[in-house]
Amino acid sequence: MEKDKVNVLLLLFIVTIIGLLFVHMDSHTYIQAPPAIKAPLSNNTFKIPKALYSITPIKDSEHFVVSAFIDHRLDGVIRVISIISRNHLQPLYCVYCSTEQVCKTVHTDVQIHSDHFSFPYGASDVICKGKHMQDATRVLITTDKIDSANLKMEYLPIKNKVVQETFKFNFTVCISNLFGDYNNVLQFAQSMEMYKLLGVQHVVIYKTSCGPDLEKLLKHYETEGMLEIVPWPIDQFLNPSSGWNIKIHKGDIHYYGQLVTLNECIYRHMYQSKYVLLNDIDEIIMPYKHANLPSLMEDLQSAQPTIGVFLIENHIFPKTQFEESGKFKRAEWNNIPGVNIMEHIYREPDRKNIYNPTKMIVNPRKVQQTSVHSSLKNTGGSFLVPFNVCRIVHVRVPLQGHLTKEQLFVDKRVWDFEQELIQNVDQTLKRSGLL
Ligand SMILES: *[C@@H]1O[C@H](CO)[C@@H](O)[C@H](O)[C@H]1NC(C)=O
Ligand SMILES: *[C@@H]1O[C@H](CO)[C@@H](O)[C@H](O)[C@H]1NC(C)=O
């Protein structure tokens, strides 16, 4: 009996040693990994103040941090929105400081979001738990426990320090990414003016790049105050995929880091906006039974007081099908690049056994983690808004290109706003120097 016990202990000991060896070998692989920055930032190619880069490499690692927030719902921990290299996991530490002199270092809990679509880099939260975090003003994520507090490093400012009960905005639209030479000016101007008529006060775009005419329009809306541009130079750090399917669009991270920016946008507006709309640049979340978003949400929320995530079905209006009369084919817009959504009133029918993807209107204070079409972690639950109450007008290339006009539905909701919409679009294009 005694001898068997000794043998078992010996075996356990050997297994443990082998295990430790493996862990040790593994730790060497990440220490020797090459740095992740592809193109070094130089002042000539990239004239944005350093504080506005939005993406900061974690020293001696392949990971990046984006921004830091107090999460009052989780006992006041610091949540750092991050981009984690999933194949190079390692302990990370959190240095948080209340004044220049007083800093503390704690361990972190790295939470990689479950939706990463198999790309090697994933949207993540690095959670710092410690004492007196509410007093902290800045935070640093490091790989090194010991010297980090003394190093001259770039700290992130900590936001959302105080819970607010009233908000600067009622409705904010988060456009998660703008990239390439996207120059769809007319559709963007129409969408922005449509949002205004629907009751949106604030639009945020995470911008990697865009075309020259759209640039002018963005400048106009920024000056006017409706639009906030967050620089999103993800292509300076990683090779972003232009799609969600890694097999078709190879790269380091899903769709220009869309999952990171969507989450960033929610935390950025937690105490700034009553509701946040998470949709793409060519999509309009459109009420069909209410005049605008405030009256829609008043009804939805009073019927479902606890719900924090409202799912809105996407519907495709092919840009290849034009309405017959041509009454919105205006000469004034002939030289404006982009799609005229008022000409595209044909909507594709639902497909059998194919689920219409959704986008969201959320109460940001009830969301912890989000994906593109649904929330990953929230309190209060989700509600699928009926199609006849609210749906997305999405003018784009068809998904069912073989269908003829007769097989599509006529949907003229945008025309209900025609008078004000046309007037406001014209005014905007003139003020932007495009008309
Ligand atoms: C960029 O500008 C900063 C401050 O203006 C300067 O300290 C730095 O050396 C410059 N870097 C390069 C690569 O030119
Ligand atoms: C938000 O909605 C409330 C209630 O309808 C209204 O009193 C307030 O003026 C709105 N705020 C903005 C910024 O429009």
- Major sheet size, sense and barrel closure: 9 strands, mixed
Order of helices and strands: HEEEEEEEEEHEHEHEEHEEEEEEEEH
Fraction of residues in β-strands: 25-35%
- How many helices does DSSP assign? 6
Write out the distinct hetero groups bound to the structure.
2-acetamido-2-deoxy-beta-D-glucopyranose
Which structural class is indicated by helix and strand composition?
A: alpha/beta
Q: Give me the Rg, rounded.
A: 25 Å
Would you tell me which CATH topology of the largest domain applies?
Spore Coat Polysaccharide Biosynthesis Protein SpsA, Chain A
Number of strands: 21
Low-confidence stretches: 21-49
What's the CATH C level of the largest domain?
A: Alpha Beta
Report on this model:
Keywords: Glycosyltransferase, Membrane, Transferase, Transmembrane, Transmembrane helix. Its main location: membrane. It comes from Sinocyclocheilus anshuiensis. GO terms for molecular function: glycosyltransferase activity. The structure is a single chain. The chain is 21% helix and 28% strand. It has helices at residues 2-31, 185-198, 212-224, 258-268, 293-303, 418-431; strands spanning 56-57, 64-71, 77-85, 93-97, 103-112, 121-128, 138-142, 156-159, 169-178, 202-207, 227-231, 273-278, 283-287, 309-318, 346-347, 358-362, 367-370, 375-378, 382-384, 390-396, 409-410. The strands form four sheets. Strands 9, 10, 11, 12, 13, 14, 16, 19 and 20 form a nine-stranded mixed sheet that branches. The chain has a seven-stranded mixed barrel with strand order 2-3-6-5-4-7-8. Strands 15-21 form a two-stranded antiparallel sheet. Strand 9, helix 2 and strand 10 form a beta-alpha-beta unit. One 2-acetamido-2-deoxy-beta-D-glucopyranose is lined by residues 169-170, 201, 294.
